[in-house]
Design goal:
Elements (H helix, E strand, L loop, with lengths): L1 H10 L7 H41 L5 E5 L11 H7 L2 E5 L3 H10 L6 E4 L2 E2 L4 E8 L17 H4 L8 E9 L1 H7 L7 E4 L5 H7 L9 E5 L5 H13 L2 E5 L3 E6 L2
Parallel strand pairs: 1-2, 1-7, 2-3, 4-6, 7-8
Antiparallel strand pairs: 5-6, 8-10, 9-10
Length: 252
C-alpha cells in the first residue's frame, strides 16, 4: 500500500495544490508512521530475542571468548559492556584511535582476562589513514565513534576543517587470529562505520566460525547489506534484523 501511494505521487500529474494531492500526501505520511511502528516493534523484539539467546548460551559457557572490532571507549552505545562486566568474559577488544583506545583500557582496567589491540582490521596489514572528527569539534559523545575509512559516508555533513586524519596500524582478521592462536569465537562484534561487510568477507568460516556475530549495517549500502545477509545465511546463520545492527546466530 505504502509503495503504491509513493509511486502514485511520484509519477502523478495531479495538480500539487489540489485536494487529491494533499489527500495522497497525508495517506503516505499516515502509512509511513504505521509501517515504521511495526518495523520498530519487530526490531526491538529481534534485539530482545538475540540478547536472550546470547545470555542463555553465555550462562552455560565457562570459557566464553569474544572479539570486538571497533570497541570505542567500551561504554558509549556499547552492546557488550554489561555482559563483559556481568560474566567476566575473556576476549580481544580492538580500537584504532589512540586517545579512545586509552579510555577503553581505563574502562576495563580491573579485567585481567582481556587483550587490547590499538589497530584496525583491514584487508592488508600495515598503515592506513583513518578519518575522524577533531576532538575539539565533538558536540555529542557518540561523534567520537564516527572514525572511518569512508569519510564521505560517515562524515557527510561535517565541514572539512572539522575532520582530521590519523595514521593507524592495521591487521588482517587472519593475522589477528594467528597472533593470539584463537581457535574459537563465541561472539564476534563489529562496528566499523561502513567497513563491516569487508571484515566479514575476510573471515575463513572453514577455519573459525563465531557462534554469534553482530555488525552495524547502518552505514552499509543496501546492496552490500543484502549480500552480507545472504552470505551469512549460506554459512548457516539465523539473522535477527534490528534498527541499526544485524545479529547472526549459528543455529546448527
Amino acid at each position: 500500500m505504502l509503495g503504491t501511494l509513493k509511486n502514485l505521487i511520484i509519477k502523478s500529474t495531479i495538480n500539487r495544490k489540489s485536494f487529491l494531492w494533499n489527500f495522497f500526501k497525508k495517506e503516505v505520511y499516515f502509512y509511513s508512521k504505521i509501517n515504521r511502528f511495526f518495523f520498530i516493534k519487530q526490531w526491538v523484539t529481534n534485539k530482545q530475542k538475540f540478547l536472550f539467546i546470547i545470555n542463555k548460551y553465555a550462562y552455560k559457557t565457562n570459557d566464553f571468548f569474544f572479539i570486538q572490532i571497533g570497541a570505542c571507549d567500551g561504554i558509549m552505545g556499547d552492546p557488550l559492556y554489561n555482559m563483559i562486566k556481568s560474566y567476566n568474559w575473556s576476549g580481544i577488544l580492538i580500537e584504532p584511535q589512540k586517545n579512545i583506545f586509552n579510555k577503553l583500557k581505563e574502562t576495563y582496567k580491573e579485567h585481567k582476562n582481556l587483550i587490547f589491540e590499538n589497530v584496525a582490521i583491514s584487508e592488508k596489514t600495515g598503515k592506513r589513514n583513518l578519518y575522524k572528527l577533531k576532538e575539539i569539534n565533538l558536540k555529542h559523545s557518540w561523534e567520537k565513534g564516527l572514525a572511518s575509512f569512508y569519510p564521505t559516508k560517515t562524515l557527510a555533513g561535517y565541514e572539512k576543517e572539522d575532520i582530521e586524519i590519523e595514521e593507524i596500524n592495521c591487521l588482517t582478521f587472519d593475522d589477528l587470529i594467528d597472533k593470539y592462536n584463537v581457535n574459537k569465537i563465541d561472539f564476534l562484534q563489529i562496528d566499523v562505520e561502513g567497513y563491516d561487510y569487508e571484515i566479514i568477507k575476510q573471515i575463513d568460516f572453514n577455519k573459525i566460525k563465531p557462534v554469534f556475530l553482530q555488525y552495524e549495517h547502518k552505514h552499509i549500502n543496501k546492496k552490500d547489506h543484502r549480500e552480507c545477509i545472504k552470505f551469512l545465511k549460506d554459512q548457516g546463520y539465523k539473522i535477527f534484523h534490528q534498527e541499526n545492527d544485524s545479529g547472526a546466530f549459528l543455529s546448527e
